[in-house]
Request: fold
Amino acid sequence: MSAESVWSLDPRTGERRGDAPVAVAAGPAAVDAAVRAAHAALPALADRARRSALLRAAAAQLQARSESLIAAADAETGLGTVRLTGELARTVFQLRYFADLVDRAADAGGFLDIRTDTADPGLTPPRPDLYRVQLPLGVVGVFAASNFPFAFSVPGGDTASALAAGCPVVVKAHPDHPETSELVAAALRAAAVGTGLPEGVIGLVHGFAAGPELVRHPLLSGVGFTGSSRGGRALFDLAVTRPRPIPFHGELGSVNPVLVTPAALAESAAAPEQLAAGLVGSFTLGMGQFCTKPGLVLLPAGPAGDACAKAVADATAQVPAGVLLDERMREAFLDGFAARAALSEVQTLAPAGAAGTAEAPLAVRAGVLSVPAEAALHGSHEQLLEECFGPTTVLVRYADAVEAVAVLGRMEGCLTATLHTTADDPDAPAWLGTLAAFAGRVLFGGWPTGVAVADAMQHGGPYPAATSSGTSVGGAAVQRWLRPVAFQSLPAQLHPQA
Amino acid sequence: MSAESVWSLDPRTGERRGDAPVAVAAGPAAVDAAVRAAHAALPALADRARRSALLRAAAAQLQARSESLIAAADAETGLGTVRLTGELARTVFQLRYFADLVDRAADAGGFLDIRTDTADPGLTPPRPDLYRVQLPLGVVGVFAASNFPFAFSVPGGDTASALAAGCPVVVKAHPDHPETSELVAAALRAAAVGTGLPEGVIGLVHGFAAGPELVRHPLLSGVGFTGSSRGGRALFDLAVTRPRPIPFHGELGSVNPVLVTPAALAESAAAPEQLAAGLVGSFTLGMGQFCTKPGLVLLPAGPAGDACAKAVADATAQVPAGVLLDERMREAFLDGFAARAALSEVQTLAPAGAAGTAEAPLAVRAGVLSVPAEAALHGSHEQLLEECFGPTTVLVRYADAVEAVAVLGRMEGCLTATLHTTADDPDAPAWLGTLAAFAGRVLFGGWPTGVAVADAMQHGGPYPAATSSGTSVGGAAVQRWLRPVAFQSLPAQLHPQA
Reply:
């Protein structure tokens, strides 16, 4: 059986790009080879100075190759060079951010989380001298996301945080950007070699079957995943049913509700229109292909809410049509919108639909739906409370706080939840608590798209937003790839702090 | 169908104690009621001052009732009043230790792990104001251990750390000490009521079927387990295959190898005998029913090792016979020892066996086996590298470092690994690295039984020693029951630090 070819596709047309495949799908032997090479690189990554140098060299390599990387990514994803330029800059920043964390790993608050105890035989139970530190977990498998060819893919947060922890990585490329994946992997390998590390610290495999093969590999010790609920759960199931289960840090998508209070709409005469403009900008950003897209907006019934809804409809109609990442997503988006629009009492404020042009026959238009809260709570309308990936959102018009609470109480775990109200709203603390009960990041004002790379970031949330309490963005992301070991009664000359 | 009765048994005779059952097995309705009562208590536990008061009141209640608690535990477990007095003192200390952690939760290094970022719109990506904090996970299910009726049971580390985190607890009692469990639960409930908290913060259920029922309950958010590999894995499988998977922090047992180098034996003329005395004390402590029992000792071949082995045999023969926790464990111990003793090239240095008396017909005697490392490495001898619960250990006689490394390379994940060598041994750092690769706690000298309640403790290890990277003893145990939430762009007056 010859290896299956992997082609790069043009999302604007669905056609193959170029005359030759860009890679071959990895069979079991190729996955095994990548994992073994990564495992062999584990001792080399124990040196923190070298790890930090690797991350900085990777950032420099991506910057040096930015033109060709952005061109390939745009050709494969249709996300546009402006957005991709920003995404690559973010990715470069992120690599350097994690390098800084490695440099500070042993400091107070650093990710080695060093804890010490001195012996005290008088306690019950007696206490010996203890030194607790975090060690790398082992080889990490990373599943690249469709929607961020840089920031959540080969050189993204999972890879950067795993390398920072001292864990070699094998990335499963996403089929929506195989050429970009190859180019980035080559850049990272060049960085490894330039830092005196084996190329095996970064492996890359393509093809659907390579995913399960990777998760099942006996030498794999953890998985980072960004993608769909269905795919993520299937791989999670494999990870936890192995003879030796391994942690699976999956980010599976989210509805990201937004609660707009009457007070927010009343804050100024322009408030309804300003909210509408912000919302439309957020839910259509990157053609709505953000895991943090606001997919459900609780908007008060009544004239101010009506004005806001009308402004949302008008602004949505002005959004240029665009392409989605691939044909499967396009179908799912169009079908998902149509199914929701067909539910009773659902009103189409702006119709999503095919909007092909000669250059981009697969382009689609953004759409917005509206529904009374009472109807949204029907068992038959559950789909409205679930994510529809792509440029669409649902306005849920609520009559009073009881209805809003009822809808929020039906939310499954989310990455984000956003509150729009006034700073002096006496109910604000209670609303924040309600939102924090099911979300990993709670915003006061603003919009959830855009996730800062920061010490205090949390990108993750209760299941199904994520399969663990970890974060895939920000400083705490490193903790996912570490395990603690306590050393007891080490003599002074063997003490790591000696 | 009437509820199944739960009797307290005398481990010395296997007979029922008293004329009446001490509890009834919980059916689905009783489990549901306990979990719902716990869930209803979640908001009340949000107040950290009250949580801390609860833990201190619980400690005081246990101290006030210590006489009856120790009497019941000894009658049910046969562990003896000396050991149980120490265990209860440890448990009381542990409750107060976690109360102290609650009081310091918001400080630097405290378990709320507060991280803040100030807004910086100039970064790529721009950074908003962020405040990241840990929230309680929800209701925690705790599976009590057979071998520690206090310290790893109803009032033990899992319960104390979950309450410290703000999570109400439902404990599944262990069938080896149902009466103790009831008495302790009553003490904890009295502490709750005395602190103005609902009794539901601590639930207790009995019976085999209550375990799976608890793990599957939709309102359960996490599990702490201490017990056997088989039982733990079965419950882990339930936890991760739920529609909403939940974290399962299981501690499933461990071999806890000890490496004795030739240098350690040569340190003094008395060294072989001193090592033997320490080893026998450790592997027979509590009749060998410690999860940290040293179950395999790598001992050099040659005269000094022979002298040590002989001293181990002699000291073991002097250990008084005693009872195990229940008849199932007794059978497993006797069968496990006999099966290992029957393997080729295995020498019985001290025979384990039945040693009943009139008062304790079920008593057994400790035993020791010895085997050349080469034979221990045979595929047919794998059982020698697996845990045999009870008072026995295996001396593996190795010819050189290559053989010792080969045996250690066959170890599955362990809670502990111990190195006996001299402080100036140039190979000590390499040995420590070898042991840390598969263990959660690495000891330089000493013996692994006895786990200090301390900030820097790690009680857990790679699978199958544990099913997560958490620890069930020490300060970091609280982290298992928390999840992070980031609040973004909170106005000053709503900021938690305001």
About this structure: Residues 81-103 of chain B form the longest helix (23 residues). Chain B has a mean pLDDT of 97. DSSP finds 15 helices and 19 strands in chain B. The radius of gyration of chain B is 24 Å.
